[in-house]
Amino acid sequence: MNTTPSAALSLPASPSPLFINRKPLVAALLIWLAGAVYLVQTTTWRQGALWLVGALMGVTLYHAAFGFTQAWRVFVSDRRGAGLRAQMIMLAFGVVLFFPFLAQGSLWGQHVTGLVAPAGVSVLLGAFLFGLGMQLGGGCASGTLFAVGGGNTRMLVTLLFFIVGGVLGTYTYGWWSHLPALPPISLVKAWGVPQALAVNLIAFGLIAWLTLVLEKRRHGHVLANTTGTSRPASLLRGPWPLIAGGVGLVLLNFANLALAGHPWGITSAFALWGAKTLQNLGVDIASWQFWLPHKAALAAPVSHDATSITDIGIMVGALAAASAAGKFDPLWKVPARSLAGAVAGGLLLGLGSRMAYGCNIGAYFSGILSGSVHGWLWLLAAFTGSIAGVRLRPLFGLAVEKTPAPSHC
Q1: Are strands 106-107 and 110-111 parallel, antiparallel or unpaired?
Q2: pLDDT confidence tier of residue 17, bands split at 50, 70 and 90
Q3: Alpha-carbon span 346 to 200, nearest angstrom
């Protein structure tokens, strides 16, 4: 997920090892505390707990610089595969943890179900558009949120048009939802836990092995880490090792499963925010085919939507992490071509995420952890789209790294 300073995504280096942005850090902590109190009093303790989970996701994403966009871009451009291998380790740990509980359908007394969606043409098209969009926009779904929270002003534009694209995806639902597709297939239910685990773990191992072969062929050696900095690692101030970030995200996703009854997702909330905005402007969103089964969500406050709570929590957590690291320093001057990339990328991200039944989190990470066939289809199509996006980045004045950089999504 990471990009370079020229792509307006990385944040300024800490002026000194002890520097902390105190005012933004205090603001983030107060926002988190006020939000927790409000949610517990007006909704349920589970929503309050999800608020904490979201904040911890933001801290983890920021400090580990754990992402998808830059990891894929660096592999495409320079065959450096440390980021991809970290993703495979994360997924391997995730399926071992998730599959048994999804098979039994309950976790600590809570009914749980995976994010399993149809695998078909809309997933291929949508994931390709998403992969293209995340290279132009500068981040995936999780990357957009934690970059915004970390003070990246360009990503505010990406997020805005991500929301617009998500609404467009719901408007065109009548078309893409009828494209040829297989029914939702869960490998956990179709094959059972042992066989589903074996097949997934073998696939992760093969992908990791392929990255090693291609990286050694290009460079003669393997780079183990892409997040190193001159500053010593710190639990509160970062940076964290990639593997620690991946393990942390799996555990937080598992907490999301236990609290919300489903794995972690992101982009459904973006579409909801956009739909609610149009609804408040007088547009009859509730009559759109996509929203017919979701009228209750349209009518309810955003605080009742679990995905919205974790999304906002991610931004608050990233704000706290960036401030603790002394890196919160928004830059408001963004080149016009870079802004054009943010607009185009955001639209593609939003539209693609709806068509593909999710993003890098809801379809890829949580989809594969749910045993969904569409998660694997998403990976193939989105990676292909990412290759195209890497080729197009220079047209928008965006860099294509040849070596990994310690920056953010």
Answers
A1: antiparallel
A2: low
A3: 31
Structure-block tokens of residue 84: 């991809």
| Rama region for 403: left / alpha / beta (φ>0; ψ in -120 to 50; rest) | beta
Q: Cis bond leading into 239, ω under 30°?
A: yes
Instruction: List the one residue out of 367, 372, 373 whose CA is nearest residue 353.
Output: 367
Number of Cβ atoms within 10 Å of the Cβ of 381: 22
Give per-residue pLDDT as tens, 308-333. Answer: 999 999 999 999 999 999 998 888 88
**% the chain with pLDDT above 70:** 92
Cα separation, 232 vs 239, whole angstroms:
8
What pLDDT digit, counting tens, does each position of 30-54 carry? 999 999 999 999 999 999 999 999 9
pLDDT reading at 4 higher than 50: no
Give the SS3 label for residue 110.
strand
Residue 89, class by beta-carbon neighbours within 10 Å (0-12 exposed, 13-18 middle, 19+ buried)?
Answer: middle
Written as six digits, the tokens of 221 are 């050696």
Name the nearest CA neighbour of 226 among 32, 2, 367, 404: 404
Half-sphere exposure of 185 (CA within 13 A, CB side): 14
Q: For residue 106, what are the CA distances in angstroms to 220, 258, 368? A: 48, 9, 18
Tokens 């990503």 locate to 155
User: In which band, very low, low, confident or very high, does the pLDDT at 246 lie, cut at 50, 70 and 90?
Assistant: very high
Q: Rounded to two decimals, what is the model's pTM? A: 0.91
Sign of CA dihedral 293, 258, 2, 28: positive
- Count of other CB atoms within 10 angstroms of residue 180: 8
Helix pair angle (45-64, 22-42), 10° resolution: 150
CA dihedral 281, 332, 148, 60 (to 10 degrees): -170
Give the pair of three-digit tokens for residue 332.
């408001």
Q: Is 16 helix (H, G, I), strand (E, B) or coil?
A: coil
Q: Using one digit for the tens of pLDDT, what is the confidence trace for 162-210?
A: 999 999 999 999 999 999 999 999 999 999 999 999 999 999 999 999 9
Contact present, 228 and 406 (Cβ < 8 Å): yes
φ, ψ of residue 223 in degrees (nearest 5): -90, 125
Using the Cα atoms of residue 310, residue 144, residue 172 and residue 273 in order, give the sign of their dihedral.
positive
- How many residues in total does the chain contain? 409
- C-alpha span between 25 and 317 (Å, rounded): 10
Residues 142, 337: Cα–Cα separation, whole Å: 23
